[in-house]
Design goal:
The complex is a heterodimer of chains A (327) and B (311).
Chain A: H1 2-28, H2 33-40, H3 47-57, H4 64-76, H5 91-126, H6 131-145, H7 148-162, H8 182-219, H9 222-229, H10 234-271, H11 277-286, H12 290-318, H13 320-326
Helix pairs in contact in A: 1-12, 2-3, 5-6, 5-8, 5-10, 5-12, 6-8, 7-8, 7-10, 8-10, 9-10, 10-11, 10-12, 11-12
Chain B: H1 3-19, H2 21-39, H3 73-109, H4 111-126, H5 129-139, H6 144-171, H7 174-181, H8 186-197, H9 199-222, H10 233-242, H11 255-279, H12 281-295
Helix pairs in contact in B: 1-2, 1-9, 1-11, 2-3, 2-11, 3-4, 3-6, 3-9, 4-6, 5-6, 6-9, 7-8, 9-10, 9-11
Classes of the chains: A mainly alpha (327), B mainly alpha (311).
Chain lengths: 327, 311
């Protein structure tokens, strides 16, 4: 329990750093971002929008520390200000629905690549110099070196545009009504194959290699030798004895990978015009919609921090050593 | 510090390139790309000039076709190589230096300094890098310097963590204790006792960071956060996406650029893993064992000798 609380404290610090970076960024650049934005829109923004922008940035005549406190209070209430591109919608409501799509995309990609990569790593370590061990690592390392979104572009071009096997964009077809129906779920799945697949392809190699390398070390340890000598079934030795322990470093990097994949999936979404955070982010960058950009950064950060805490809970369950020192 | 003290760091790399096929392939590819970026621009025309009908497939006149703006794709690719690689390597090296300063300081001094610095890099590790980079880059004037800056800000933490751990283990060795007892200054201990033992690790880290820097840089530019009027790999892809190259079937506007990014990343990781192959005692032992078995006319068994973890 103390372990989890300590981690929670750490995530609180990380969240606070993100909030503070967000607060000071607009103040570091010379001039007033609200006025600069207003000038850039050349009269297409109403004075009301300018006021809303000022309020969003918290650029009031109050002293800096009071601006900062107001900002923190607003952020805690989930008030990230008003979007410029989607004026006058508040940032949070613009982000809301898109977040579901991003979490769905990045979440399923991370889970699939983690599960598949780890499994392949176990196989590669057990049958050293077998087919999986010989062919997969170099091929997957090469695929891992490809930029995420470029793999997505190739997949879109080849499988979507060329062969017409998969839809070439969006999260679901225009002619289907969103709802909890089988038809809608199938449609969403069909649209997700290419984006998820391209992210999985780019990530598989890392999971495979790290699992393979830890597995090889663990398979050489004494307790695995003992388990073998006892005549335990090989499947039991591999899965219950070796893999469970070899999994620990992979679980630790899971949280970090999540942040990385979320970043990468933003670009993948843009390629597929997938209606998630990436697509919003592109709109935000194009329209210089700073409040929206910052809101997206904060929301993604919070999602990553939350996921990391869940990973900590899983870690606690997997590694009894931490449980014992904590109690 | 004499050259002799530095040599142990670089020599294994040359050794790796000479002995390991993977490392040799990686090094050759890298040299080829460096020449491509340095000398290539002398042989192609102006990459931003209008030279032909837009979105023309590859022909003898334009070996990689033309872009949606009627520019020569090959010229853009060659000219883009120079900027993209320059930023990649500059960021890779800066990130490692920054990581070394923070990591070694934390590991060497310990105590409160270590606590604070560790907290700092752990926080930066857990913050999602790409969104952070995007937010910072959006506020700064677009250009190579901004890109380099945001990549350093989002990329240094991992190196700091690895180098702190390494410093902690080096610090416990006897020769450091001897240096402290003999009254050497902290700076001297750090720069001429600790850092030289980590040279090869630093180079490996720099290679990893360069891979990260090239990939992330291309991604940011693809989003339109680079200087979109410049010519780099990322902006090439940005324009390809903007001109709907994908939906008009103009594969030649995006395929070559991405392939180059991938090849550079591949070359760098080959170099790194080839080096690991040569210097990692675990893999070294296995290699010697196999050579020993082969020398006695025995087949290579399934199981492999492994140096057990003692910790």
């Amino acid at each position: 329990m103390r372990f989890l609380l300590r981690r929670l404290g750490f995530y609180a610090v990380a969240g606070w750093v993100a909030l503070t970076v967000n607060f000071f960024l607009p103040r570091l650049i010379p001039g007033d971002p609200a006025t600069a934005l207003f000038a850039r829109f050349q009269g297409r923004l109403s004075p009301a929008a300018l006021q809303a922008l000022r309020a969003t940035f918290g650029l009031t005549p109050a002293p800096l520390w009071r601006q900062y406190l107001t900002y923190l209070a607003h952020a805690l209430r989930g008030d990230f200000g008003t979007s410029v591109a989607y004026f006058p919608s508040p940032v949070l409501s613009v982000i809301g629905t898109a977040l579901v799509w991003t979490l769905f995309l990045a979440g399923s990609a991370v889970v699939i690549s983690f599960a598949l990569g780890t499994l392949l790593g176990v196989v590669a370590a057990w049958w050293r110099r077998g087919w999986v061990d010989g062919v997969m690592p170099p091929v997957l390392v090469f695929l891992g070196a490809l930029p995420y979104f470029w793999v997505a572009m190739l997949a879109l071009y080849g499988l979507g545009f060329g062969l017409r096997w998969f839809p070439i964009g969006h999260a679901y077809s225009d002619d289907i009504r969103p709802g909890w129906t089988v038809a809608f779920a199938a449609d969403v799945a069909a649209h997700a194959v290419l984006p998820v697949g391209s992210i999985v392809l780019a990530n598989l190699g890392g999971w495979l290699l790290s699992m393979r390398n830890t597995m090889i070390a663990v398979l050489g340890s004494e307790y695995v030798n003992l388990a073998r000598a006892k005549g335990l079934h090989p499947a039991r030795v591999v899965l219950r004895y070796a893999a469970r322990n070899a999994l620990l470093p992979n679980v630790t990097s899971f949280g970090m990978a999540l942040g990385f994949v979320l970043g990468g999936s933003l670009l993948t979404e843009i390629v597929f015009a997938y209606p998630g955070q990436g697509y919003l982010l592109l709109q935000a960058v194009r329209n210089q919609d700073y409040p929206l950009m910052q809101g997206i950064f904060l929301v993604i950060t919070l999602a990553v921090l939350g996921a990391n805490w869940l990973v900590d809970i899983v870690y606690l369950w997997l590694d009894p050593r931490i449980r014992d020192t904590a109690s | 510090m004499s050259d002799g003290a530095r040599a142990p760091g670089i020599a294994p790399w040359l050794e790796a390139i000479r002995r390991d096929r993977k490392a040799a392939i990686g090094a050759a590819l890298l040299v080829a790309f460096a020449l491509f970026g340095l000398l290539g621009p002398l042989f192609v025309g102006d990459p931003t000039a209008f030279v032909g009908i837009p979105l023309q497939p590859p022909t003898w006149r334009h070996l990689l076709g033309t872009t949606g703006e009627g520019q020569d794709v090959l010229a853009q690719l060659v000219v883009g190589t120079r900027v993209s690689l320059a930023i990649g390597f500059a960021v890779g090296i800066t990130v490692v230096l920054l990581g070394a300063v923070v990591g070694v300081t934390a590991g060497f001094y310990g105590g409160r300094a270590d606590g604070l610095l560790s907290l700092l890099f752990n926080v930066f590790l857990v913050l999602p890098g790409m969104p952070l980079a995007i937010v910072i880059a959006a506020y700064l004037p677009s250009g190579p310097l901004t890109l380099a800056l945001v990549l350093v800000v989002t990329g240094w933490a991992w190196n700091a963590r690895v180098l702190r751990a390494q410093t902690l283990s080096v610090r416990q060795r006897d020769f450091i204790a001897a240096a402290i007892v003999s009254g050497e200054s902290d700076a001297r201990i750090i720069f001429s006792e600790i850092l030289p033992t980590m040279t090869s690790l630093l180079v490996a880290q720099a290679i990893g960071s360069t891979i990260f820097a090239i990939g992330a840089q291309v991604g940011l530019e693809f989003l339109g956060l680079g200087d979109v009027s410049g010519v780099t790999w990322g902006t090439n892809l940005y324009w390809a996406q903007n001109d709907s190259a994908l939906l008009t079937g103009a594969w030649w506007t995006f395929a070559p650029t991405g392939l180059c990014v991938a090849l550079v990343g591949f070359a760098l990781s080959m170099l790194n893993s080839g080096f690991d192959e040569v210097t990692n005692p675990r893999l070294q032992l296995e290699r010697d064992w196999r050579a020993h078995l082969a020398a006695h006319g025995l087949g290579v068994p399934r199981s492999t000798p492994v140096v057990p973890d003692r910790d």
